[in-house]
């Protein structure tokens, strides 16, 4: 895993270009602490810088930027290609010879043989790349199918800059920090910014599964080209359902997941796994134990708040599988000590509170390994979220109730403060056996918002939102409307079934722009490479061919994935109410984070005029007095203010 940055600027000398590339990779040393390098084509005005985290072929032969054998292509590559050995054998049969054991050299040979567009479609892995074609004087910026690795592009006057993180672009020339107000509105609603937008008007993300080709650094930027999409995989899979029965499907899924895990164990450095003890990560660790000849190391972080602590479950699963397990129990005060670092790590606002435990478990794992496997993707691919149950069973029933009746019921629910709904939860926490009423106030508030929605699509969109009306100074609806990609997917006619549209929205938007962005920034901040076998694109394509009953059966999600796990782990070890990988953000904002958050929200010099002060004050007061479970909405405001304070000085 690595990081890169570069520039195409026709008015800089060769020395200036090289110096610029070196400056741009300096802020992302955490992505590659082992080595660095720059490459410059002074005649064309192109310079590329690279930071290396050595995983495969630790020798200097794996250094980047790397040129192809003919000298036509130069690449800077962040990520891993897991099928590089099979591609290498194919290319050797075609006459290619290799001097290293790195996947980068194989990628370059694939581009030589098939061209960039066909070559990238043959890769299985996670990657972002910058490819300079010396012959055609053409820059290609590529991102993997699911968006596991980040790639930003910045347009300036007469130049194009690109890089793995926005902080690298900020170190380049003439970086424009003008805010995209629509993106801010979308962020305050969803806690993240959907691609291709970023928080800044002049900077864009290359969308997942796309290639951005640049032929003129001073001309208009052409639209990126799609080489693979979740939507395409979904429609193809639904049109060609798996013909086998349940047993045959489970066998095929088992074999494919085993292969996805096996190829992700390739490494010349130590490998472990992040284990929560839930279905997804337990499946990955179980398959690792079968595949790996050595010891399997697992890591988990737990909290002293019982409703958020999964560490006992993880320890039991690890013991059953014979893994060498390392756990760390942290207090709220311990976790809050990392919070002031978040604005530096997440150089574009992201307000998913699970960024905190993700950073903590990454820190823990990095003390022992350089690579870790994770279980990300299981919920989105196999129907694991509770909201899928609502969408398939509850939403259709709610819409049969006249809307005025639903609105009146919602108003009645709103009369009861969140602290009153949470009273049974506090009682349950004192019981020897926990009762199923965790975060009741938060769930009632979600139900209240859902009941006033016009249709099932609106209902699901509301569940995805931290706030339906962000407290912006300009317009509470900024960024929400025709440009809302979640709304477009949910309101589309294809796929026809709402459950499929919900899962398509999550895989297309929430997964790359929230979960994978969070995982990349948190893990790479401590120089840990994290690999997600469940998000192998072959698994994604197979998941769309499964009958819905093999995803959601009654109120139980991930049915097919559970069958794979139950072959290796007793159901009793993993069957429990879904907890989610998060933190007690409401309680922290009322307690150890209160003073810090209040200063960020209400210090006029930091606030500027982008948020509406009375609306912010009302939200803050409702959270503090327990009237609302408004932690997520307030957290998004606090994280935006922290980002603004750090990056818009």
Task: Give a quick precis of the structure.
The protein is an alpha+beta fold and 649 residues long.
What is the C-level CATH assignment of the largest domain? Alpha Beta
Number of domains: 3
Low-confidence stretches: 429-437
- Distance linking N and C termini: 31 Å
CATH superfamily of the largest domain: Aminohydrolase, N-terminal nucleophile (Ntn) domain
What would you call the shape?
Answer: globular
Tell me the major beta sheet: 6 strands, antiparallel
CATH architecture of the largest domain: 4-Layer Sandwich
Beta strand count = 17
User: Looking at CATH, which topology of the largest domain would you report?
Assistant: Glutamine Phosphoribosylpyrophosphate, subunit 1, domain 1
Number of helices: 29
Strand order of the largest sheet: 2-3-1-9-8-10
* Beta strand %: 5-15%
Q: Averaging pLDDT over every residue, what do you get?
A: 90
Rg, Å, rounded: 24 Å
Class by SSE composition: alpha+beta
Helicity range: 40-55%
Would you give an account of this structure?
With 649 residues, the protein is α+β, with helices and mostly antiparallel strands. The chain has three domains: 2-228, Glutamine Phosphoribosylpyrophosphate, subunit 1, domain 1, CATH 3.60.20.10; 231-382 and 501-574, Rossmann fold (3-Layer(aba) Sandwich); 584-649, no CATH class. It is built from 29 helices and 17 strands. Strand 2 and strand 3 form a beta hairpin. Helix 6 (230-239) packs across helix 22 (537-543), helix 19 runs antiparallel to helix 20 and helix 26 (594-602) packs across helix 29.
């Amino acid at each position: 895993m690595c990081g890169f940055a570069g520039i195409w600027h026709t008015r800089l000398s060769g020395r200036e270009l090289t110096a610029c590339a070196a400056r741009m990779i300096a802020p992302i040393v955490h992505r590659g602490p082992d080595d660095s390098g720059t490459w410059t084509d002074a005649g064309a005005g192109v310079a590329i810088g690279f930071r290396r985290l050595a995983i495969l072929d630790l020798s200097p032969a794996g250094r980047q930027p790397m040129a192809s054998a003919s000298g036509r292509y130069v690449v800077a590559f962040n990520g891993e290609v897991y099928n590089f050995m099979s591609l290498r054998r194919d290319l050797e049969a075609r006459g290619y010879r290799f001097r290293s054991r790195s996947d980068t050299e194989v990628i370059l040979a694939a581009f030589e043989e098939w061209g960039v567009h066909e070559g990238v479609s043959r890769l299985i892995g996670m990657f972002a790349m910058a490819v300079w074609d010396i012959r055609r004087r053409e820059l290609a910026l590529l991102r993997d199918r699911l968006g596991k690795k980040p790639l930003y592009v910045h347009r300036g006057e007469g130049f194009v800059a690109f890089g793995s993180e926005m902080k690298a672009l900020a170190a380049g020339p003439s970086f424009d920090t003008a805010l995209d107000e629509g993106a801010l509105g979308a962020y305050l609603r969803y806690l993240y910014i959907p691609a291709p937008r970023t928080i800044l008007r002049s900077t864009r993300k290359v969308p997942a599964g796309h290639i951005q080709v640049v032929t003129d650094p001073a001309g208009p930027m052409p639209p990126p080209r799609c080489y693979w999409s979740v939507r395409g995989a979904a429609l193809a899979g639904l049109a060609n359902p798996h013909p086998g029965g349940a047993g045959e499907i489970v066998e095929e899924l088992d074999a494919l997941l085993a292969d996805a895990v096996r190829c992700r164990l390739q490494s010349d450095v130590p490998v472990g796994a992040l284990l929560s003890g839930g279905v997804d990560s337990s499946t990955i660790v179980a398959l690792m134990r079968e595949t790996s000849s050595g010891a399997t190391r697992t890591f988990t972080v737990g909290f002293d708040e019982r409703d958020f602590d999964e560490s006992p479950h993880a320890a039991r699963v690890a013991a059953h599988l014979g893994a060498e397990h390392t756990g760390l129990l942290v207090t709220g005060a311990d976790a809050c000590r990392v919070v002031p670092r978040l604005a530096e790590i997440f150089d574009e606002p992201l307000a998913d509170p699970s960024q905190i435990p993700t950073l903590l478990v990454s820190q823990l794992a990095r003390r022992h390994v350089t690579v870790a496997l994770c279980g990300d993707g299981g919920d989105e691919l196999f129907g694991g979220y509770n909201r899928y149950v609502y969408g398939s069973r509850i939403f259709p029933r709610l819409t049969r109730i006249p809307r005025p009746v639903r609105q009146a019921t919602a108003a009645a629910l709103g009369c009861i403060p969140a602290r009153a709904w949470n009273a049974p939860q506090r009682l349950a926490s004192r019981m020897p056996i926990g009762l199923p009423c965790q975060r009741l106030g938060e769930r009632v508030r979600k139900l209240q918002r859902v009941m006033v929605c016009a249709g099932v699509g609106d209902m699901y969109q509301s569940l995805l939102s931290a706030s339906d009306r962000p407290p912006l100074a300009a317009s509470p609806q900024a960024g929400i409307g025709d440009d809302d990609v979640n709304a477009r997917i949910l309101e589309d006619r294809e796929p026809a079934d709402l459950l499929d549209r919900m899962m398509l929205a999550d895989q297309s938007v929430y997964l790359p722009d929230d979960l994978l962005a969070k995982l990349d920034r948190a893990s790479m901040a401590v120089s840990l490479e994290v690999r997600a076998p469940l998000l192998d694109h072959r698994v994604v394509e197979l998941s769309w061919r499964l009958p819905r009953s093999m995803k959601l059966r009654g109120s139980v999600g991930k049915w097919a994935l559970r069958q794979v796990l139950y072959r290796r782990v007793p159901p009793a070890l993993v069957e429990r109410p879904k907890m989610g990988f998060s933190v007690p953000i409401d309680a922290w904002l009322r307690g150890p984070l209160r003073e810090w958050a209040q200063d960020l929200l209400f210090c006029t010099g930091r606030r500027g005029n982008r948020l509406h002060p009375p609306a912010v004050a009302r939200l803050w007061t409702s959270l503090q007095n327990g009237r609302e479970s408004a932690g997520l909405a307030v957290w998004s405001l606090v994280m935006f203010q922290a980002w603004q304070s750090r990056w818009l000085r």
